[in-house]
Amino acid sequence: RVQLVESGGGSVQSGGSLRLSCAASGYPWSTYCMGWFRQAPGQEREGVAIIDSEGDTRYADSVKGRFTLSQDNAKNTLYLQMNSLKPEDTAMYYCAADATVLVVATAVGIDYWGEGTQVTVSS
């Protein structure tokens, strides 16, 4: 069965860094789109960064220049390096995978989700 297991969340001060990991299993890794989404309390889930099956990446405007998506195909693992963190980055971060397409603009209709990892940034 499909599993997406996130790790790497935590609490940091503003300006700090974290690296999130998403270990994937149970589906053909190289053919799927993958990405990171986040959800703050009382807000809708929003896209952060996605990578398609050809390796092209897209980022939300709010994280461009600060966050970097990468993947290790040998380990079926997706990473999100987050630098210059801000209090508004505080949220539960979710790994997502879809057989067809992922877009930063929406979290609707995605095939698979991880359970999330909490990121808290204090000012």
Entry summary:
The strands form 2 sheets. Strands 2, 4, 5, 6, 9, 10 and 11 form a 7-stranded mixed β-sheet that branches. Strands 1-3-8-7 form a 4-stranded antiparallel β-sheet, with no helix packed on it. It has strands at residues 3-7, 10-13, 18-25, 33-39, 46-51, 57-59, 67-72, 77-82, 91-98, 112-113, 117-122. By secondary structure, it is an all-beta fold.
In words, what does this structure look like?
With 123 residues, this protein is mostly beta strands. It has no helices and eleven strands. It has strands at 3-7, 10-13, 18-25, 33-39, 46-51, 57-59, 67-72, 77-82, 91-98, 112-113, 117-122. The strands form two sheets. Strands 2, 4, 5, 6, 9, 10 and 11 form a seven-stranded mixed β-sheet that branches. A hairpin with a 5-residue loop joins strand 5 and strand 6. The termini are far apart.
Would you count the extended β strands for me?
Answer: 11
Question: Count of helices?
Answer: 0
Approximately how much beta-strand content do the residues carry? over 45%
**Radius of gyration, taken over Cα atoms and rounded to an integer in Å:** 13 Å
Uncertain segments:
none
Biggest sheet character: 7 strands, mixed
SSE string: EEEEEEEEEEE
Summarize model confidence as the mean pLDDT. 94
What is the general shape?
A: globular
The helix/strand class is: mainly beta
How far is the N terminus from the C terminus?
Answer: 40 Å
Helix percent reads: under 10%
